[in-house]
Write the structure tokens for this entry.
Amino acid sequence: MTRPEDTEGAIIAWLKDFFRQLRLAWYLLWDGRVALWTKLIPPAVLVYVILPIDILPHFPPKELKRLDDLAIVLLGVRLFIELAPPEVVREHLESLGVQTQEWRVVAEEPAVVLDHGYGVTSVEADAEEP
């Protein structure tokens, strides 16, 4: 059974990480080294959240009616960061005071994946491990 302190600590850690990702996305949005088509992801997410039309229709429980919007925001931020060049992501993470060992940037040509694991490895190194 988990203690309330553990749950509170996990929530606080998640919130810190979420706001760090938002700040990282903000810096990447204004960085000229990030491709323009990649920079279209955050505005598209914002338009989806603002518009009254939803891809997923809301079901009866009114308390859950904005969960799809929250999921789209979380996925949009994550996708935007993953598609940004890894060296630019690493540079902005360091400017935010994040130690790069806390994040794992995995690059595979041409796709880039930012995995919130720990340590820096390549996709080929991961693929070779049994």
